[in-house]
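Aim 2 progress update. The chain analyzed this quarter is reproduced below.
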Amino acid sequence: MKRLIFCLSVFLFTMSLTAGTVTGVVSNSVNNNPVSGAQVLALGFSSSTNDSLIFAVISGPGGAYFLSIPIDGTYKIITTHPDFITSVNGPFQINGGANITLNIALQPRNNTSVNMIAGRVRIAGTELPLPGVKVMLMTTNAAGTGMFTYSDFEGKYQFLNIIPGIYSLSAQKDSFVNYSHNQPINVTPTTRIENLNFSLAPAGGSLTATVTGGVYSISSNAAGVPVPGAHITFTSANGLAYSAYSDSTGRYLLSDIPAGGYMAKCVKEGYATRTLNNIYLAPNSVDSVNFFLEPLVNTNFVKGQVKNSVTNAPIEGVHVGLSPGNMLPVIYQAITNAEGRYGIFNIPPGVYRLTAFKEGFNNYIHNETINITATTQISNLDILLVPSDPTLLATVTGKVMTGTSAGTATPVAGAKITLFGPDSLIYIVFSDNQGNFIIQDVLPGIYNAICSKEGFATVTRYPYNVVPGNNTLQFYLQPQGGNTFGVISGVVTFDGQNLPVPYALIEFLGNNPSLVPFTARTNASGAYHKELPAGTYIVSVVITSPDSNNFYREYFDNVQNINEATPVTLQAGTNVSNINFGVPGSPVTPFTFTITGVVRGANNTPVQGAMVKIISPISSVPPTPAFGAVTNEQGVYTLTVSVIQPVQQYMFYLAATKEGYAPQFYDHKAAISEADLITVQNGTNLTDINFDLVAGGSTGSYRISGRVTDAEGDPLAGVFVITSKAVSAGQLIITITDTAGYYTTQALQSGKYYNLFLKEGYIPEFYDNAIAWENATPLFINGANLTGIDASLASVNITLSFGIFAGFVKDELGAPISGAIVNLVTGDGTIRSYAIADETGYYTIEGIGAANYDLTATQVGYLSSNHNVTYNPQNGTLHTVDFTLSQSPASDVGNDDSVIPTELKVMNYPNPFNPATKIHYSIPAMKGADGKGVYVRLKVYDILGNEAAALVDDYKQAGTYTVGFDAADLPSGIYIYELRAGNTRVSGKMMLMK
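Predicted structure tokens:
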């Protein structure tokens, strides 16, 4: 089943810092004027993950857009604007580092000088609009030519400038039955059909659903009034989010989302957020979910208008904030609308300072403090912003030409000029018909200036120093073609099998050491080809061995030492083929199995929306949320697992959870220490794996809440806040910040926690401002909620280098540590970039330039590790750095939780294990001698009663402890661990499997 990815879960994907880009200008096809405010959307599909992908931007005042696409895939570029017909271009294959220039000309909707066919598409049996329908107009002659468009968010479509002829009209959309108009359409130069409306019916057997509804106010004087502009989000059990905004009538629509269980949230400024839990969307259905919002009472407020001090014109997008009188960071703020107006409401009483800022203007600080009481209402606190001194900004003018000198050159129109500057500053313009360009209001500094155009070799100027005032910049482009470039191609196969090696990395190291190496990837057939400047290259292949998780590099021709490599000489205009490689190994057949069953509650009633998930005892199966399923309205679940790992069998535990019920482990066990271990072979289909849940459970009633902002204090939406127990078997609670940057992690028990804050494009950190978890401030819940647990995230510095650090993060047993964070730190202590290890422990960091770095790996529960490394491009693009993390000296950590246990307990995890495990034990309050606590002994015995290890022999205070047990020198078999505290003893069994 396809998934629609708006943002990517940090545990499932690692974004490439070398993103592909699509850039250009959106214009009016009638008068060539730029079109601002157009949505340019890349709608794609990733064959490696079977996911649908969406990335979108809005065109700027000059019609220019810059679309960054960090995930490789095949994309269509769809451009929409309320006043223009939707445009569709592509498909394009976009890979990391690829740059595509695409100028888009939109046809106006109300162009009465041309013929037209238009209408609206709805969902059959309803009045709901259906967006994203592909509507096709095809000629009925033998040539079968035609045109197509897509319905917009109101279901509207339109064809203009149709060549006269006889046409058939049809429409299609995933999960809906195809539509064909019942009669041909005769189009003449004057034909204008404005209401050719039709409906599409949901397809039977679809695995997707459609949800719609309305957002309404429940205030006493405006009950039932629609609320436009509300943000509705449906979040699935595995963290995928699908969102929409309510229209002017309060209605919203989400179509083609996977059926299953969801949490729905509705957010609108001025209203209390509304959350609905346990919503189940049935397959092949149209469900209705309404939200009723309660307006917030504006007991006090500060309002006003912001204008330009020179022109007296209102200024949109100004950040107006209230700071406490001591000028701490802004804590209450608003952004001005198109009329320059702002309003800050529901302000806690106190003394505040009003501030305002916007790029291009001097910062504003009100000359007097403002005393806010519970009834303060200030309606006309207006602000005049002074434009920044124009002499402090710069203008860059220049010309793009072909040739080598101004005397013989000819102008190049439509070339893209990009300035990449400090702090991720980017300026983009295009050359006009005379090759001229101008970039205005540039902040002075050192830039990387790049000029590119299809059919020409890209030219880079670095460093380019921009100084205040006027600057000039000239580019001379050389046509790409037979006179400067050639192609190297070949195939990568497994030795002795002639089977292809897909997605292998091919590196081309030029004879000029100052050049950054070129790279390519093999396709599904193992083939590659790369267009390169003429020259001599050392060619190598790099693969990851699936059976050992190690890297293997081979140079052409069949050597492992670069000094023994055979150089490949590429002449201009030639194709050097058969640069082939044979590598060790063989294709890995996916290991697949299926589990089905029923989750029931009291009186055998089905439990809908329960999560059934795999828990791995030995890290051989990726942890949830990689593998999980949600029960349907009959309580039935089907969990299908498919991974590429060379094993003969899998062993795991299975758990069922749902809010309001105690978690249960198979087979009807209350704790994982008592659970039955499930073993499956490849291709196994397990049935009747059922659960009977008991209402109540041990869910806590406490919360951790706070706010996440960027380095400038602006709220950050969509931040993953990951709360983990101080001692846990990979137990994580994930919350996502709302549009104002706030989060609340709920249902927590008393204990000790760590908070990790993650967002794509920002440096991750633990609370409070810590890179490694050992330096984090632990959060203790002891009978009360924790508030004000805030974070401020710094953005990642984007670089234009091409180096890669990659490797594996494993524990001392060689098992992968998924979710470990690897940070790239420069010599001055700045975090340049980061990566998160996937379920195999693999990480990759791209965009590396030649320098010395510190690479650090951290994961809660393990000792963080550091490597000092040097990146040298002469040694190839890819540098491998592996980490082995040891268990943290929680090898005997006391009082992991701040609550005192009420009974003597002991358990171990993982179980079975090889060769090490951790034993967790709890000591209740017991009398001891001289305040020393109670005397505790923890020993391990073999099945015959022989002592195998003495782990604890000391006095212990009441608390929860963990001790490590390494059985590397012991034979496989069953072992008994026994805990004695005073005159009380408890024991458990564990299995060592070597």
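The longest strand covers residues 84-94. The radius of gyration is 32 Å. These observations will guide the mutagenesis experiments scheduled for the next reporting period.
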